[in-house]
Amino acid sequence: METYNTLTLELSERILTITIARPEALNALNIELISELKSAFEAAYDNTEVGGIILTGSGEKAFAAGADIKEIAELSELNARKFAERGQSLFSAIENFEKPVIAAVNGYALGGGCELAMACHFRVASLSAQFGQPEVNLGLIPGYGGTQRLTKLIGKGRALELLMTGNAINAEEAKQIGLVNHVEENQDAMMALAIQLMSKILSNAPLAISMVVTSANAADSPDENGYLIEANSFASCCGTEDFREGTTAFLEKRKPEFSGK
Ligand code: CAA
């Protein structure tokens, strides 16, 4: 397993836990971290021992408190565009990642931190989680897809309220509006749930999981025909060994053993 300055990685039972490790800056996403996160996801894509990823933050205070404001403060207009595009490209790769990605959100998920959590396939949180897009307080708007994903996840009116006020919401509120799926009492319980959910996902056919992601993401894309993509993916599934195994196992009343082929 590779080592990074801003991340720690742990692989257990096919689940790769990537922990954002800049607790002294509330896990703020600096340029090095974005670059290392890209490398870690690329390596996880290639690593056949990795079935899925849980992304979380180190310490008890933050998942990530946003992009690093010290770096943002120095951006010129030209550099700022490149900065936003680099982050958007990584977050889009996470959203479309072929292996499942769960965000486990403890403490602050603000600005780029909230955007990163939203790029994951779904989110679980601890009671301490807080979500928000406070960029307007800095004279900015989100640059890592926040205006797009927040709007899709919680609806335009609610998203605009958060985006325009810069207010944060707590974990229970986030659950009520569909930003997170589950809220657990504390960080340990949150991680246990994330592992339990990931283990359940990994007991299913990997190719089917990746086609679920592609098809569900097509629902958000005006350039794609989601129904067509779903029908094509459904057909592709029927050509896989895992489909034969899954249906045969059901008829033989046994548990399937999926090979990912
Ligand atoms: N960037 C850089 N450093 C940050 C940071 C950030 N986003 N958030 C916190 N830190 C640093 C603080 O500067 C502080 O460092 P020092 O100890 O060296 O002073 C350390 O983390 C602890 O932070 P606080 O002392 O501020 O902790 P707190 O508990 O009093 O407050 C907080 C916590 C409310 C989250 C506050 O830190 C805060 O408001 N952070 C900024 C949140 C923010 O505005 N995020 C959006 C960034 S812009 C963005 O993300 C753009 C985009 O879409 C790509």
Give a brief outline of the structure.
Helices cover 48% and strands 16% of the residues. By secondary structure, the protein is an alpha/beta fold. The longest helix is centred in the N-terminal third of the chain and has 19 residues, at 77-95.
Please describe what this structure looks like.
With about 260 residues, the chain is of the alpha/beta class. The protein is built from eleven helices and ten strands. The chain has helices at about 30-45, 70, 75-95, 110-120, 145-155, 155-165, 170-175, 185-200, 205-220, 225-240, 240-250, and strands at about 5-10, 15-20, 50-55, 60-65, 100-105, 110, 120-125, 130, 170, 180-185. Strands 1-2-3-5-7-10 form a six-stranded mixed beta sheet, sandwiched between helices. Strands 4-6-8-9 form a four-stranded mixed beta sheet. Helix 5 (about 145-155) packs across helix 6 (about 155-165). The mean pLDDT is about 95.
